[in-house]
Design brief:
By secondary structure, the chain is mainly beta. It has no helices and twelve strands.
Length: about 210
């Protein structure tokens, strides 16, 4: 990145700096009119604000519950405590839940000779007792010590606004005729939450 200075008093904005915990080196230089050689006038370094990243999304939602999945980024090299905060439409805190992660190691290409693996963390949180057809906001908060400033930081890094579904009920019944299975699905869904129904048949006699 290079930006010419054309005025004696000029404000310059350096845009599009990736915020992935980078250190930026900044140099102020001038060019001599006599021989066009460059002269370094000043230099400085600074770091971008420390960035904490995580995937945070709703995996299941109903009239009175919401289920969230959380995957922290592998790029964080400091200790971070995550909390899920739930607010109502008036920004009143309803529930605050510390996030406890599960750690799993997965083999990449078990059919290959390399046998390489990678480890990741994940968490699933379900909040019950919500009111049907109501607006809520979920914040994923991160608390940590900023490695650049040594200050304690506690801030939301992801926010999900959502509405719970209207109330509905369903019932599935099965009749075994000896040669077939007959399924009946009875739905009480005045708000038409359900649009289409599908079924899947699985063979459980083999490993895959």
């Amino acid at each position: 990145y290079s930006q010419p200075i054309l005025e004696n008093d000029q404000v310059t904005t350096i845009a599009d700096i990736p915020n992935w915990n980078y250190t930026v080196f900044l140099r102020l230089a001038g060019t001599k009119a006599s021989d066009q050689s460059m002269v370094i006038l000043d230099e400085m370094t600074f770091t971008t604000p420390y960035n904490i990243n995580a995937s945070f999304y709703i995996s299941d939602l109903g009239p009175d519950y919401a289920t969230f999945y959380i995957y922290p980024s592998e790029m964080s090299e400091i200790s971070v405590a995550f909390t899920l905060n739930l607010y109502n439409v008036n920004e009143k805190l309803i529930e605050s839940i510390p996030v406890e992660f599960h750690t799993e190691t997965v083999s990449e290409g078990e059919w290959e000779s390399s046998g390489s693996t990678y480890t990741y963390q994940w968490a699933q949180i379900t909040i019950d007792g919500l009111t049907p057809l109501t607006f809520y906001k979920a914040d994923l908060n991160a608390a940590y010590i900023d490695p650049y400033t040594s200050e304690h930081v506690d801030r939301p890094i992801r926010t999900i606004p959502f509405n719970t579904f209207p109330e509905y009920t369903y019932q599935v019944s099965r009749v075994d005729t000896g040669t077939t299975f007959q399924y009946t699905i009875t739905v009480n869904d005045p708000s038409f939450i359900f649009q289409d129904f599908t079924y899947s048949v699985f063979d459980t006699t083999t490993q895959y």
